[in-house]
Amino acid sequence: FRLLLAHNPKIAPLAEQAGFDLQLSGHTHAGQFFPWTFVIHLVHGPHAAGLSRRGRLWVYVSAGTGTWGPPVRLGTRPELTLLRLVAANGPTALLKSVTRQPPGGAATTSTTRAERSNRHGEITMTIGPTPALMKQVNEAFNSRDVDRIMAFFAEDCTFLMARGPEPEGRRVQGKAAVRKVLADRFRVITDMRWDHVDAFITGNRAVTVWMVTGTGVEGEKLNYRGCDLYEFRGDKILNKDTYWKLVEHRDRL
Length: 253
Hints:
By secondary structure, the protein is an alpha+beta fold. Helices cover about 20% and strands about 35% of the residues. It has 2 domains: about 5-125, no CATH class; about 130-250, Nuclear Transport Factor 2, Chain: A (Roll). The strands form 4 sheets. A 6-stranded mixed sheet has the order 13-12-17-16-15-14, covered by helices on one side. The protein is elongated, with a radius of gyration of 24 Å.
């Protein structure tokens, strides 16, 4: 999980490109108080105070700590925004409800905009597979750059290969072992690639359908339709289960 602290919320596109998951930013100069909210949404949108999403990146903008800025926050007092990030198992992380406490005043708690909140007032922020993430995974595999590929895998990942001595295919356990298997494969099939056919995502699981092609150093040619069944922990691949079609000679069917 990669967290960026940045005052200016408008750098979110750069943060997303750099692979951050959450950006915490400073206030938008009174943009959270009507009637200025509408104006700030036009200027800063969608980064007015609160929680918003850009692709895989979540952006939280604080309500701020001062009364200055164009325009002045009429009738407001300085405030402090306290955030608590709560680690969670599975495909979600929790962003705690926001508590604002004016100096010398009583703290007030409010729930900011998000996908959903639970009965404890915590905001659930989904961190898991997205179409953009799956595209990045596919591009990494097609680059055959093992370091780039392994950046998407969890340390305790499992890879069930399409072939192998076990009924489920060869089981490769752990990031180091998966790295070695992929490196060995790309030395044997130097032009291996996966051309996207279809994909769908449900919760922390994703399925990709592709055509795999390539020619091995001993002349074996790959040209099969196949699929990967993925399970994610957050935005890291926990399990990858690969299948592909078995091409039979017509006289054997």
